[in-house]
Amino acid sequence: FGTTATLLGVKPDRTILDLAPFMDDLGTSSAIISNVLTPHSSGLRLLAAPPIHLGGFLSADATAAILLALRRAFGFVVVDLPSEISEVTLATLERSDRVLHVMTPDVLSVQAARTAFSVFEQRGISSEVVNIVINRTNKRLEIQPREIRMLFPYSVVAEIPADFYGIEGPLSIGQTLAEADGGCAAYTAIRQLATAIVNARPRPDSQEAASVPLQSLAASR
Question: Which of 44, 49, 71, 196 sits at 20 to 30 Å (Cα–Cα) from 33?
Fold first, then answer.
């Protein structure tokens, strides 16, 4: 529940809070979910967070029910979670097929990661589904990706180079990096990560693969 709407340059008419009156019907009508989604020119559809001034979110149980409804409706569900750990974020993480913890190579981010991973372990979130994405890497920084790999028992699946000027233009006009396709280093790394995630999903070419539920992916910070 981050600032995704702003980054995509959209102004949602409805948010996740609009689902509150329909919780009992989510499992019977996909139209309920569709009616609150905001389309984007890239083809993705956004279930937006409410404006900050409204305050409040749905309960952990309600969030879990919404995630299940989204999994039924879409092949991939990506959830942008805040850095604060709450019952809502934990409910999402516990129901995700893959968790990407996005961190930066600095002391504060490393400490935050230690705290988050400790909570993950306490809640029984399997280390097999938790991966690390290191954002804004730079060879001139004191902390390098190799040191982060040594600190944590989780796989580092992507290193996104610091590329402010490469991403500033597209994001300032609500474009995804894929739409801009300007060949910036950050986009190349993100594309490689996305491709790996898609390719890791079981293919429906066997009865076993066909029975695998749709995937959900949570990104924590």
Answer: 196
In this predicted model, what pLDDT tens digit does every residue of 140-193 receive, in sequence order?
A: 999 999 999 999 999 999 999 999 988 989 989 998 988 887 678 999 999 999
**CA separation for the pair 133, 190 (Å, rounded):** 10
| Domain assignments of the chain as residue spans, ordered by start | 1-74, 77-221
What are the angstrom distances between the C-alpha of 90 and each of 53, 74, 85, 218?
23, 21, 7, 10
DSSP β-bridge partners for residue 131: 100, 155
pLDDT band with cut points at 50, 70 and 90 for residue 203: low
Residue 114's closest CA among 154, 79, 146? 154
Higher pLDDT, 51 or 23: 23
CATH architecture of 77-221: 3-Layer(aba) Sandwich (3.40)
| Cβ pair 69, 33 in contact under 8 A | yes
Residue-level pLDDT at 180: 84
